[in-house]
Amino acid sequence: MTLPLGPDELLTTTRSVRKRLDLDRPVPIELVRECLEVALQAPTGSNAQTWHWVVVTDADRRRAIGDYYKRSYDSYSEQRAARNAKLSAERQAVGARVATSADHLAERMGDVPVLVLACITAGADLPAGNQAGLWGSLLPAAWSYQLAARARGLGSAWTTLHLAYEREIAELLGIPGDVRQGVLLPTAYYTGETFRPAPREPLDTVLHLDAW
């Protein structure tokens, strides 16, 4: 059963959920499968469908992925603090709220009931040139998964920090060498009632008609 969300509401209220992930409520694997069935309808280059989805529910493996994620996050958070110091006071305030939420997820990633890794067959070495064609055949499907999860009362978060330890995680999960990970989607029921659209810069600050 899905929530009564219109397309615009679904698209504008599917947020990265971190603090509000319910770490104590089990997520039925059947519900994850439903979300992935929706994801498989996403566009993919030449209709190749070379994606793979690794769904991790085993507690030990989740904990190990969480440890790698935390190590990567600790390094990233130092760089983020330096970048935020150069922003306006308003943007710094927003960044501080996001940082608190991200800190929480980094501490608890290994406790999230379901970790979904979206992967794609790409070869051991990524293309040296424009990779838009490669990732464009995977990332829309990952976003579709998040939308399907939101419609079913699940929260998720988009993160790629685990990729600093992609090889270690691949070894942990037995992922073949020619399959590359694109995004990690921690998935759980969420606490609270609903979500609101996030504040964004006005459209006209980024819109270019006919030319830059």
UniProtKB/TrEMBL annotation:
InterPro entries xref list: Nitroreductase, Nitroreductase-like
Domain of life: Bacteria
SUPFAM superfamilies: FMN-dependent nitroreductase-like (SSF55469)
Keyword set, alphabetical order: Oxidoreductase
Pfam families with a match to the protein in the record: Nitroreductase
Record domain Nitroreductase: where: 13-179
Protein family per UniProt: Belongs to the nitroreductase family.
Protein name: Nitroreductase family protein
Native source organism of the sequence: Pseudonocardia adelaidensis
